[in-house]
Design a protein that fits this description.
The chain is mainly alpha-helical. About 65% of the residues lie in helices and about 5% in strands. It has a single domain, classed as 3 helical TM bundles of succinate and fumarate reductases, CATH 1.20.1300.10. Strands 1-2 form a two-stranded antiparallel sheet. The chain is elongated, with a radius of gyration of 21 Å.
């Protein structure tokens, strides 16, 4: 007779009837599906259509970030990928970090990294200015008006 060992992940803690492990599992499946669509769309636009990888330069990125559609597209990719990866790391930490203190420190480190990267990435997406005021004319791309 074959027996399967119990998983090492601690039993889901129920908070007012909510099973957080179940919702984490559902999030991984849903975000993974949406990420596949977003990433293949990103690759199609950036690499397949047009001139391929040769077209990707500062002006290409500036043109994309000039439209809210691409800002939202990249924002969704950023947030979903980082939260998806952070949740996956949390699961691995639960599986392999047996010491309670180490487990908590690692999970807090992953949370901090995810939060910092989401904040920085979001700032870049929404504050990107290809033609900053006060920059030397020699440092500006050719499509920027001289200031």
């Amino acid at each position: 007779m074959t027996t399967i060992e119990a998983p090492r992940t601690p039993a889901a803690r129920s908070s007012r009837g909510k099973n957080w492990e179940k919702w984490g599992w559902i999030y991984m499946r849903a975000s993974g599906l949406v990420l596949v669509i977003l990433i293949f769309g990103h690759l199609l636009i950036n690499l397949v259509l047009g001139d391929g990888v040769k077209q990707i330069d500062f002006a290409f990125v500036a043109g994309k970030y000039a439209t809210p559609f691409w800002q939202v597209w990249d924002l969704l990719m950023l947030w979903l990928a980082l939260i998806h990866g952070g949740n996956g790391m949390r699961t691995l930490i639960n599986d392999y970090a047996y010491n309670r203190v180490v487990n908590r420190v690692l999970k807090w480190a992953v949370l901090a990294a995810v939060v910092v990267l989401i904040v920085l990435g979001t700032l870049v997406i929404f504050t990107f200015d290809p033609c900053p005021a006060g920059a030397a004319a020699a440092d500006l791309p050719s499509f920027c008006p001289a200031r």
